[in-house]
Structures are given as structure tokens and as C-alpha cells.
User: Fold these one by one.
Assistant:
Number 1:
Amino acid sequence: MEELILELKKEIIEVLNLEGMTPDDIDNDAPMFGDEGLALDSIDALELIVLLEKNYGIKLANAAAGKEVFKSVRTMAEYVSKNRTK
Amino acid sequence: MDIFIQSAAQISIQNPLCDDWFENPIAHTEGYNRSIEPDYKPFINPMAARRMGKLIKRAIATSISAKQSAGLEQVDAIITGTGLGCIENTEKFLSAMVNEGEQFLQPTYFMQSTHNTISSQIALNQKCNGYNCTYSHRGTSFESGLSDALQQMLLGRINNALVGGHDEMTPDYYNMLGKIGYWKQGELSEQILRQSSSKGSFAGETSVALIVGTNKTEHALCKLRDVDLLYKPSETALQDAVQRMLQQNNLQPSDIDALMLGLSGDCEYDAIYTNFANAFGKNTPIAWYKHIFGESFTAPAFGVYAAATCLAKESVPSHLLHNQKNEVKSPRNILLYNHFQNIDHSLILLSKC
């Protein structure tokens, strides 16, 4: 799981162009959206949905499920681990 | 009604956000040059900047810089001219479409692949709810925007406007244009461009922001007297337009202290400028600017910026002059003429404040 978390952090930094940020700067359990943690927004959510589909073959059609999946990098990694097709 | 260019800011292949080029222009010897990027942190929040392409960053930085120089909190209108819009992100978006079979398209590149995203992003950044428009008319994109601003002020609809000319040159687009003869090959120099003995010019990138307004502010650069756009004019029609512009502004040809022409080193297109200058009057000093800033769809924005700077600094320095070596001191009126492939032509008249 730790390996997947690190991989996801690297991909998030790249796809969201989080300049000057390293995987160590992202807390595994910190909220990804909202005022705390990474403070991502709805466009970032779209980018993350594309990332899941492109890199892991996961189609995230349910918006409510997305809220849970993108809670933190850890929840995202757990979801990827269970549902990945590539 | 008098209309003034109250301030200007540029990011280009010269030192950015300053007038260093006026005293010490950087001489480029390569055919392909990217703009010199300033530090964007004073202008753009890093979290917002991460989603912006180079051109958007440049547009916002020049816009904020010009607004600050003019001492304005807000503008009535944001008007942008761009030949290509954010072509770098357009390329990324289209490449992804091709490579990924039209799947997995990233929204950020999509949003920035439209031309009017430049004006929109400036407006969002500056929280400006006023008139917002983008002109994309190849080589007269910037002049179209400037004409719009001028007319709206003359009609009393707005009192000021942020007018920009923004274009980037990606490696792929540079190579494509090179294949159809846009660029000179080999090492370049001002002398080679001045001789204009072969086809092609050299590439630059444009990011110019002007604040144009009806108030004569303390540091206003010059008056914007007139803008005229012509489509495929004959030589006679062009000269008639010049005469008309001068008459409407109560000027004689002898009142023009310099012509600022879009000479670029391309033998075919420079010949049109030479004919224009000969018809105007052989003794009028000819200035140029594309040997310093390079060619792009919105390069004429540099012409306006350079001429406005010359009027404000009361000198056309020798390195800007094409047909003589002696500086033009205390110019009062400068007539700008540019054409895009002898199709779209523009005339702009600037005068000292």
C-alpha cells in the first residue's frame, strides 16, 4: 500500500502541476479538498478522475463515491488497490 | 476627445517588464527565441499559477504591471488580441486526443485551448466584470482590439481599457511555419534583417499590455489619435487612408516625425513597407522594432509600445532607425504601419501628450 501511495502522490503532483511540492509534503491522511490539506477544487477533481481512468482503468461515474474516494491519498490508494484493472 | 496610452508593460525576448531594450537591446542570433520569463510570484498566487500556461502567466503579469503603472484599481474593459491563443496548451490537448484515442482528456488543457481564455483569465484574476472581448484576426488581432477600445471611448461607453496583444511560439509551430518559409535560416544579425535580401524573418513571442484611457494621467506615455484597418488595399487606397487619417487629425505629412514600420527582414513583405515609405515622403525617418522583438501575429503591439515609449522619452534611438543613424529627437507624431502578408493592413497614429 505504501508503494501505491507514493506512486499516487507523484502522479497527483505531476497532473495537478503542484510546483515545488514533493511526495513528502503530502500527508497520507490529510483532506485533499476543502480549506485544509491540499485544498484542491472541482477542476482538480476532474483531473483526478481522468488520472484514475488513464492509469488504473477505473471509471468513476458516481459523484457520491468520488467524495469518499478522494478524501485523502490513503482512501484513494485503497480504492485503486481494490478496483484497478491495469 | 483625447485618448491616452496611460501605461504599458511587456514580456518578450527582451528583458521583461522594463524598458531596458530602449537603451540596450539584447541582440539575438538564433532564429527561434522564447520570451524571458520574469518572476511571477509577485503577480500570481502559486496555487492559481499551477493551472496557467506560459501565455496566461505573461498576460496576467503584464496586465497587472500596466494597471499598477497607470495607478488604476480597476478597468472598464479588457480587450485582447491574439493570433493563436494559448497554442501550447492547445497542442497538449490535441496531442492527448491523438495519443489516447480521444479519451482521458485533461480539463485544464481544454479550458486553456480556447482563444478567449486569455481575456477571461485576466478578468477572473482581476475580478473585472466589465466588457471582455478577444480578437483573433491573424496579423491584425491586436490592432482590432485597440480599434475597439478607441471606438468605445469615443462613443462614451467606457473611460479606460486594458488592451493586450499576446502570442506564444511553440517549437512545433515554429517548425511548421519554417516549412512554409516564415523564418530565415542560419545565424542572424540585425544587419542580415536590415539588408532584407531573402525570404523569412525571425521569431519572437508577444505579451504587451496597454492601459488606454480618456484621462491624461501624470505618467501617460502618449496620445492615441487614430486606428485604421484595411483589407487588401491597393497602394492608392492605402495612401488615401493615410491622407484621410492625417486630415482628420489636422496633420500634414511633414508633421510626422517618424514612420514606425513592421519591417521584418523578409524581402517580399519589406518591399511593401519601402513602397509605403517612398510614397509618404523619402525624408521621413523610418523606425522598426521587429529586429528587437521578433515577428509574431501580435508583433504590432510592440510597434505601439515602442512608439509610445519613444514619444514619452522624447527620442527615437538610433538602434530603432532603419534608414538613418542619427537619433530622432523630441518626436511629436509617429505613424505606424503594419501589414500581414499584404492582406490585412493597419495604420495607427500616436502623438506626444
Note: The longest helix of chain B spans residues 54-70.
Number 2:
Amino acid sequence: MGRAESMIKRSFKRELFVCFVLVAMLPLLISDFSLLGVFKAKLSRDYEKDAMEQMKNIEENIVDFLNRMDMTLASLAGNDTILTGITETDSWLRSKAYKQLYEETQGYRDYAQFNILNAEGQCMFTTSSANQKADLPPYWGILKVAYAHPDDMIIRRAGDGTTSSLQLARAITVDEECQGFVMASLGGEHFESILHSSYDNKNGIAILDRFWEDVYSTKTTRDENLGRTLRQRRMSGEKIKQTTDGISFYIMPIEDSGLYLVMGKDAVFTDDITKTLMGVILSIALLCMLLCLFMTTFMSEYLTTPIKRLTKAMSCVQSGNLDVHVDSKRKDELGQLSADFNKMTGELKSYMELQVRHQQELSDSNIAMMQAQLNPHFLYNTLDTMKWVGKVNHIPEIAVLSSDLAKILRMSISEEKFVRLSEEIRFVNYYMEIQQIRFNGSFSFDVEVPMELEDCIVPKLIIQPIVENAIIHGLKEQEEGHIFLNVYTRQNKLYIEVADNGAGMSEEMVRLLNSRDREALKGHIGFYNVATILRLHYGEEYGVYAEPGNRGGTKVVLILPVDLDKEVPDAEGISG
Amino acid sequence: MKKIVCRIIAGLMFAMGICGCAADEESEDYRLDEGQKLIVYTSHKKEIYEPIIKEFEERSGIWVEIIPGGTNELLEKIKFEESGSGGDIMFGGGIDSLEVYSGEFQPYRPAQYEHLDHTYASESDAYTVFSRLPVVLIYNKKLVISAGAPRSWEELLNSRWKGHIAYADPVKSGSSYTSLQTLIQVLNNQYSQEEILRNFSNNLEHDIASGSEEAIENVVTGKKLIGVTYEEAALKRIAAGADIGVIYPEQGTTAVPDGCAIIRDAPHQENACLFVEFIVGEDVQRLLEDQLYRRSVRVDLTRAEAIREIPYDLDYSGEHREEVLALWEELNP
């Protein structure tokens, strides 16, 4: 059981098959068999009813006949002529008695044989044509009973093993003294005449006596030896009717005669009919089974195919292929599932692409920075030499320029990614010193940083490119240029504002700068890089925004989170 | 889940079963009460037991189940059957056989015991005698004139009948052994047992019938002239038209009765007692004499032709059985 169960449960198809078979076969078989049972019961009831009607008919016939026989025997017993014939030996009187017997039994002799016995049981007169000896001992059997009950007709079976008959007897009494007996004997041929046409000849009947011994039976029932079988069953306490019987039979007592009537009919359900019905049931069951098999195959295909496809697609996804797409035209839950799967892979794919793009952007800026690296020691040394040459030759500008440049260079190539805001601003100051020398002091530069913000941690080199832009683009061709660097916090965000009073920029340019479009910002790579660094480090809500300044010019705002916690070791070279 | 399904199926099957059975209930009205039954083992022939048992049924209302068989076969069956599981009464069988198995029987003395012949009555009341069966000589009336027919037992040893005697093998036939013992017991004062057997065997010329029916048949057909058999068998053949004569030997003859016995722990013991009373009753005993060619065991039933009877020594017969039969087989290989 357990093994079969686990066998079934291991496959969806098998589970489905078992369910289908249960659902299809169980009601079918139950209804078939109960129908068969009901049909059988109904048929046997009809059968029984029919048999009972016929048996009632037979019973009436027999009872009627016995009543008439009773009257006949009574009148014979009371007939003086016959009585005289018994006691007298005179042949003329005897002949008269015989004549009387034949007259009295007129019309009955076809149905019975009549005997007149004297008190010793010797047969005096008989209507039998055969010259049988019909003497009976008066102390025995029917005569003894007739003697004891002179007012009744006694009914007894007589038989000698091969033939049997029914005997009726009545004592002839005169003054309470038994003078003889009148007897009637009903053999097989007599019963045939009596019962002729009172039942369907196809059925066999048997008349049994009080002890269920055959009195009369038609050919069919005699062949079956029905009386003996029934008696045997009753004796041994078996069921009277048994399922193995080839015929069904019905038993009925015949009023108070002590006789029983048995009617045997061909069994309601012959083997043939049962076989045919079973055949039909089995073929239907087979058909159902095939249908179940077919439906199982179809349904399991129908259900498992999309699941299998999903599973396959899922394994594709697991191995990294996000281009899979599950096609399903179905509108049911499984179709929905496929659609959801497709949607999920689509989203996963675009997320992955985004990740890749971020990575690429980061490495692009790295590459750009690395390309910017010359051999730094050569540059330091050269710049140092330039500083000393400037000092020796009393050209202080060269000394300042080369010293500042060396500091900027060191800071820009240091490995540190984050610096204190104060460092960053110092860096911007070095840069501005150089630019003021370059542009011959044609602009001024102011910085306003609250003390408490000086320790803020910011990515390095984010202010310089903006300031550079302001000098190159904003103060182009400007006589009195001014660049103002203002740092403040608002709503827990760090704002670094670079404003100039230069030419300002067109609205299109503002939109371009804020668009984050790498291609469009080709000429403004510094701006773009700063924006990207901020966004990648801190997320989408941070970045760089350009806007027209309050009094002309341009204002560029860097927005960062306020980060005072991070401990950043002082970058050597910058402070030193 | 599965259990529930199983239960539903079982329930439906049960309901269907009930529908199927309902129709059979009426036939249970015909169930017989145990008190209405009697099981009779009988070794009698059908023509004997049938009218008697039928009449018993009619008078008592008791249903009798008849199990016919040979005497020894039935007695063995009784011996080896678990007590109380088989029959109620053994009807038939010579009292010598019944005596051997007396331990298997329930002692019972019928109310009419005083009316019965006590010659062969059981000391322990193990059995009750039923009918007397005299051994007689028969002759073919066509081939032997009445005056020339044998008159005494000695004639069986007379060379005059050499090769003309019909006789059944006593090894196979119980009645034949009884007649052989009768011969021995009658002639024992004149000859020794061995002389009797030797002379008789010699007279038979080893032509021995296999059964008592065949022995009578041989006389009826004229193959043999005279024979030894039971009176009942002879009279029955005569009534059926056979032209044979019966001789009651002048010394007299034995009439060993057969009997019936109630089996120990019989399931229907009361009915069995009723049956015993019935078969020794006047009516059955009269019927035996009137119609069944047997002799009554009742002393109050007079029979026209009484026979001269000599006692049969049951003890002697039983004691010498092995010895006699061994010698017989030796003489008649």
C-alpha cells in the first residue's frame, strides 16, 4: 500500500489517473451493480407474483377438487347398496354395488381411481382397469387414521419408491362400527387431468405431503428431484432456496390439506443473461478506463506543459540568460503565471543593465583619471626645480606657481577618495592662486565656509572642476570677475555653491547641464564627472545643478549629505 | 480520505447485500425444530425401512433423516463418529453384530419389554430386538419333488446333493455365517466342527455364491437344486412368483433376530426412544408378519405356522468366528 501510494504520488500524471479512475469508475460500478440488484429484485418480485398467481389458481383447483372428492366419498360411504355389496357375498348384490359405484363416481373416474375396502382392508370393488391387488392393512397407515376419524376424509401420500400417489380415504361406519373404507387414489395422470390448463406448462410443479415427499411432480421437477432436495435442505437446516439452484421455486401450503405446492420456474437470471449484463458492464468500465487514460494524458499535458516550459525558462534564468520569454496564449492562471514570469525577467534584465551601466560609468571615470597620471615624481621634481629657479632668479610668481602646482598634483593623484572639506577648499585656493597669476588678477575669489562644516567629508576634487568651469566659461572676457564659493547646510544636506558674475548661460545650456547626458556634456567633462561621482556615491537625490545666478552669472550647486563622522587621515602633501 | 472512501464503498455494498437477502427471509418459516428430527442409520432394505419410517413420521410428526448403509459400515461409522454428532439410532443389523458394538449404544428398555421375546434380549439393554429371521432350506420345486426335498440339516453333508447346493460365502455374508453356525451348532453332537466344515465344503464343490441374493437366484433359476437362506428372502421370492419351496428342518432351526439400538449421546434421544417403542409396537410387528415376510419378536402376536426353534449360541458363534472362517477359507480357496 505504502509503496503503491509513493509510486502514485511521484508522478502528477499517475495521481491524476487515480483520481480520474476513482471519479469515473466508482459511481459507474456502484450504479451498475445497484441497478443490477434493483433490476434483479424487481424481476424476481414479478416472477414471484406471477408464480403466486398461478399457484393460487392451482391451489383453488386442488382444494375445489378435494372438496368434491370429499362429498363423493361421503356419499359412497353412505350408500346402502355398496354397504350391502361389502358384507354380502351374493354376486348379484355385488354387481349392483359395482353398478352403484360406477354411477356415483361418474365424471370423477378420469381424475381418480376408486376402491372400496372391507373392514379387514381387503379390496372389494375397484374402478381400476388393472387387476392390481389393492389390499391395505387396516391397522396401518391411512386406514388406521380413517378408522380413528370416521367423519373425515383422510389424505395421505402412498408411494413405493418409483411412483407415488395421493390417497383419500373415508371409513364406512354403521352404528359407529366400521364396515369398510372408500378410497380414492390420485396418480400422476389424474393430477395432470385435474391441473390441466391451470398453470403455465413451462413451469414445473410438485405437490409435496406433510413431510415434503413427492406426491406428484411434473417432469421437470421430477428430473430435478425437487421434493427430495427440499426435504433434505429442510432436514439439515439449510436454506430452502439456494443461490446455486438452476431454477427459482416457490412454496405454498395448500390450505389445511397438509399438502404443499411447489412451483419451479427457470431462474430469473440465467447464466446467459448474467453473463451478457456483466459483459456490458465490463465493456462500459473498459471504455471508461480508456477515456480516463486519454483524459489523464490530455489533462496532464495541458497542465504540465506550461509548467515544464516555465521550469526550463527558470533554469535558463538561473544560468544567467535573461532573454528568455515564455509564450503562452492561455488566459487562465497558468497563462497569468507565464506573463508574470516574463514581466519578472524583463524587470530583472533592465535592473541588471542599469547595474552594468553604473559599473561602466565608474570605470570610465577611473580610466580618465588614470590617463591623467604622468610620472608624478618627475613632475614634482621638475616643479621643485622650477620653484628654486624662480627663487634664485627672483621671480616669485614662478616659485608660487610651481609650488602650488606641485601641491595640486600631489593631492590629485593621492589614493584617497574622500577628504575634509577644509582640504578641498585649500586645494581650490592653490588652484585659484595659479589662475590669478595666469589671468593677471582679473577676478577675485571669495570663500565662505562655516567653521563647523570644515570637517565635513566630501569626495576629493569635486569643487575644482566647477570653479574651473566658472573661470573658463563664466568669466570669459570679463574685466571684474568674481567667484564666490559658499558652503552651507540646509535640511541636513551640504550645499556647496559656486557662483560667478560672468556671462551666465543660456537656458538650453542649463537644461543640458542638468540632463546628465554624457554625450551632450562632451565639452563639460568636469561638470559631468562631478555629477556622476556624487550620484554614484550618494544616490540620485544628490548631485550638481546649474542655475542662473541671482545677479547675473551662473550658480552651480553641489548637494551632498552632511558627513562629519568619517575619519579621514590627513592626506600627506596637501597639509604639508 | 482513503478510509472514508473505503467506508462509503463498504456501506453501499452492505446495503446492496441487504436488498439481495430480503427476498430469502420467507423461506426461513420452514425451519425445523431440533425436537422434530430423528436421524436413523439403517442397514435394512428400502422395502423394510420405507413403510415403517413413513408411518412413524405420519404418526409422530417427527421428520426422519435416513442414512442407509451396510451393517458393519454403519457400526464402524458410529464407533468413529464424535459422540453426539451423528445419528440417533441404528436400525437393523444382527444382534450378534450389535452386541460387539454394545459400548457405543445407550441402554434402553422399551415400555413393551414384557411383550417381547427375551431369548436374545441384550443383558445390558444395549439393543432391542426387532424381527426374527429363521434360517431355512429351499429347493427348486421344478427340479426336486417335494417328497425328495431335504428334511434335515445332515442332508447338507450328504453326497446326494454334492455340487447342487447354493450357498453364499460366509466370509462376505453375515446371514450365511449365521446359517453355517446353525449347521455347526445343530450337528455338533454328531460331528466335530472341522468334520462338518470339511464335508460341507466338499459337498459345495467350491462353487460358492458371493452373496445371499445370488444364492437364492441360483436355486430359482435351477442352477442349483437346494440352498440355505433366511426365511424372509425365500418367502419374498415366492410371493414374487418364484417356484421354490421352503423347508423347516425337522430338528428345528435358529431364528436370530436383528435389532435396533439408540446411539450413545444421541442428539434426538427422546425421538429415538419413541422410534424404538414404535417398531416393537403391535402395528409394526403385525406388518412384519403380514407384509414383510418376517417374524415378530412379540410374544403376544400369534402366527399361524409356528416353527420349531432351537437356540443359537451367540457366545459360541462369536468366539469361534475367526477360527471357523479361517478354516473355511483354507477349505475353499
Note: The domain at 35-132+258-296 of chain B is CATH 3.40.190.10 (D-Maltodextrin-Binding Protein; domain 2).
